[in-house]
Amino acid sequence: MKTECSVVRDLLPLYFEQMVNPETAEYVKEHLSQCDACRKEYEDLTSGDGIPVPQTAEKDKEDPKRFRSIMLRLRRQFDSLAYSLIIFFIFLGFGWTGGENLMYNSLIMPLVGIFGYYVFRWRAIYKVPILLLIIDSFVFLFRLIDLDLYSVFVWTGIYSIFVLVGIAIAFLLHYSFRKESIR
Ligand SMILES: [Zn+2]
Fold first, then answer.
1. pTM for the full predicted model
2. What separation in Å is there between the alpha carbon of 14 and the centre of ligand 1?
């Protein structure tokens, strides 16, 4: 019973978005009709933990579930867009190392940090530098840039510092906006 509950709870967000196959949906529905704890969990999920869903339009009031589902989908699309930009900017920035565009990295790398914070939150602190190292190594291994291995590590370290500055900026902005909205 305990295992069944934890499986069902993992499925709830997907079930809510109707992204499970019909058999799974039937299984979850069946379980929800029998298990009070999981039904409560599902109600919390669909009602946004008791925080009222912004009701700007009459239509949203009628169909808050659909509205929330669209918002979740939008958020996911922004995430993958930001993620693609991170990878693109790292490639671009590292490719500029040693060239005349090198200076632009003092803007590009903090930007990578800002997008990184948007996608990974505080985990960006280690995830983005790891991503930097992977991409820089890739560029080095495929001889896309004329640098020795030592320089690759040094530049990756330097860019990581710029990335961390970006993460710090994004964190401060996020934090101050949150404070603003509570007030
Ligand atoms: Zn249950």
1. 0.60
2. 16
